Amino acid sequence: MSPTHESFGRRAFLAAAAMTAAAGAIPVTTGVAAAAAKDPDQLFEQGAFDEAARGYRRLLGEEPENAHAAAQLGYIALLGNRFGAAERYLSTAIKLDPADVAARQRLAECYVRQDKLAAAVPLLEQTGRPRDAAYATLYRHVTGTPWQLHGARSTRVPFVTMEPLPAVKAEVNGREKTFYLDTYATLDLAQEVAEEAGLRSLATVSGVASNSPVTIHLGILESFRIGGIEVRNLPVQWIDARRPPLPDGSQPAGVLGTTLFYHFLTTMDYAGQALLLRGRSAASPAGSGRIPLWLAGDHYPCTLGSLNGYGPGIVTLDTGGLGHGLDTTVEYAERAGLAVDYDHPVDRNGVAFYPVTADRMSLGRAVGRNVKGFASAKTIPGQPGPGQADMFGFEIIANFTHEFFKPFTLTFDYTAMRVSITGGGRPRP
To answer: What residues form the membrane-spanning segments (predicted)?
Structure first.
C-alpha cells in the first residue's frame, strides 16, 4: 500500500479514537483575531491564551456573576494542567450556570488527569451525554488507586521498528506484545489482546474505523509492564478493527498514547530509536529547544509552530500519521506559500486531498525542510490539525506528524507543560 493510502487509512482508523475527544468545546466563529484585539474571546480563538486569561480575569472582576469568563479561565487553566485554578474556576462556572455541560466535562477531565476518577463520576453522570455516562461507569468500577506505578524510576525501551510508526515491546498481564506509539492515541488494545488478557467490557461507546461503525469497549487492565516499569489498575479501551500491519505483516497489540505518556516525563527519541519514561518529577532537558505544551481534550497535545514562516500559530503534535509529516488545509497552505500539487488530488470520502511540500516547518528551533504532507480542500471536522478547531475552540494551522519528527528527540513534560526538542540527542535515565 502506498504511503498516501496508508496515511488516509490510518486517519479513518483514528476516527474511533476521536470519540474520546475533547468534550464540550466552544465553536470557533471567526478567523484569527487581529494582533491588537482586546476581546478575550477573540484572543482565545487566536491561541493567545495568556492575554485571553487577563481579559477574562478583568471581566470576572467587573462582573463576578460572569459564568462564561469563569468557564474560560477554567478551560485555559486545564489546557495548561494548572489543576487548582481549573478546579476553582470551573466549579465557579458550574455554580453560576448549572446548565453548562462543557464546564462539567472539563472539570471531570481535570480530575481524570489527576487520577481522581471517583470525583469525575458524578460530573460525567450529570451531562446527559452517552459517552460521558459510559466513562462514568468505567471509573465507578475502578477500585483502589488507578495508574499505580511499580518498579524502576526510569526505563528506556528500544524501538523494534520505526516504520510505519515507532513500536515497542510491552507486557499485558504478563504476555509480551508489540505496540505502536502515537501521541494522538489513548491506551488502546486490539480486541483479541483484551480477550486474551481476560478483560471485561464495563461500558461501550460508538466510534468509526475504516469508514465503518465500531464499538469501543471500556475496561480495567490489571497489569501493563513496559521496560522496568509496571503500571497496575489502569483504565483502557479496545476495538475490533485492523490496524496498519507491522513490517512482518502481523497486527500490533494496540497503541500507546498520551493517557499513558502524561503519567511520566516521556521522551520519544527518534534519533536514538527508543522510548524513555521517567518519573514526572524528573527534570526535562534544559536549553533553547523548549516550547509551550497544551493538552486539549483528553489526549491531544498542542504547541506553537510555523509553516514557511507563517505563524507561529497553534499546531497539533500527532506522531501517528503514516508516510507524511504535515496535515493542513488548502487555505492555510496558500497562506503559508506551500507548494500545493493540484494536479494529483487524492479523494477521500468525497473530499480532495492535495500533496503539499513545506520548504520549512518549525517547532521553535527544530526545523524540518522539504517536508511532504497533505492539504484538504476544506476543513474536515475531527481531522488532526485545522479540523479540530471547532472541537477545541481555537484556531489550529497545521498538524505536525511522523516524518517531521524522525530526525529529533522529543520530551513531553506534562508538569512544566513544555516540549523539549533536540536533534539526535539521547537522554539517559
So the answer is: none
